[in-house]
Amino acid sequence: MAKAINFLLSKFKYVLLLYFIIQIIFLFKFPLIYTSDSGYYFKLAQDCISHHGFYPLPQHLFEDYIVAPLYVNFIIILLLIFNSSFTIGIFNIVLNAIQIFLLYKITTIIIDEKAARISVILYILYLNNLGLVMLNLTELFFTVIVSGGLYFFLKQKSRSLFIAGIFCGLSIAIRPIGWALVLSFLTIETYRVYKKEVRFRGVSYLIAGLFIIVLLFGSISKLYFGEFIYTSNNGPLNILMGANDNANGGFYAKVFDKGQPGYIEHPENLTYYQKQEFWKNNAGSWITAHPLKWVMLFPKKLLNMFAWDDVSVSKIVFNNFNLYNFLKAVKEHVPMGIAFAGFSTIEIFIWGTLQVYHHLFYFFILFFFIFGIIKYRFKVFSNSDFNLLLLFLLIGIMMTIATIGDPRFKYPYMFIIFIFNSLFISNYFLVKEN
Predict the structure, then answer these.
(1) 221 with 48: CB under 8 angstroms?
(2) What domain range is 147 assigned to?
(3) Tens digits of per-residue pLDDT, 166-179?
């Protein structure tokens, strides 16, 4: 293991170069066909472009929810420059480059340069980061914004704390889970004030940056949309999917079928906030009536998040098939010839090989993360920067399992696991060899 790590470290620049060449090849080689959430964000952006405005527009008042307004508006700007999915692919490659840079910088600040290189190599070997280049999802953009916030917070200067607050506001404008970053920053900074390590003004700079972005973004949406919207508001919908008699801890769209608690007779007649209020009341009523049953769903939600990890690996080979489709076919005893209909033998072989490699790597880094936290607990818990990362991870996961569990939802925390593993690998394998 140590020899393989040292070899990759010695060829670090070449590994980086090869990684970006592969991304560009994939972008040119495979057509970008967006479905599901990727297709919905693309459609929203195209709607806004055709109406010469930004998201949300008045016609979106009767949608089921407002989602990732900052991300959708970024896509609008990109498509105004060149209206093609290829533009989004280029943007994703740029985001990958920025994320690698920030991951390197953050790890260097917290640990050292060798660990930073290890964390970047782990990032590259994690195939979801490659597959996301060919999708149109919020995960990569959100993670870059979170990483930017962490980087500036760790610098611990007045100006950098203000910028960290700005990044917090931007993260919330993509996903409400950005509040986990805010709470983590405020908790650590307040503790440092209590210990008289820093002055309280750092907290005020942080809050000021956050407040400015929320006010600015909400005011712009008020101008275009007539409502003060600065973040996604699909929380009640997700909570209801994880709070009903048939909830299984994962995505459960049947809760919106007729006769189910999420069903609305004429949804086109209700505004997004009327629908969200309806779903919130029904979810709240069920949770109040079944608090223990709701809590007992938390382990299932965690299992749905972490038991498998095909966020975008399948996209490297297939457009409309992934590990979930395969597992569903196995569960329902669908013949493999039918499940893989339309795919060549070589495609199926490559897909299977990538899945095996990726999941072996994924479970290794999960296991080593848990192992390292236990083995190096004194080093970890005595460092406030490590505590900050763990706090964000913990609060974020707690906020997530209040809704539903999905493999995609853990993606923003994976780079944190890479940072920890860079320390553990450096200490366990490389130091041991020396």
Answers:
(1) no
(2) 2-433
(3) 999 999 999 999 99
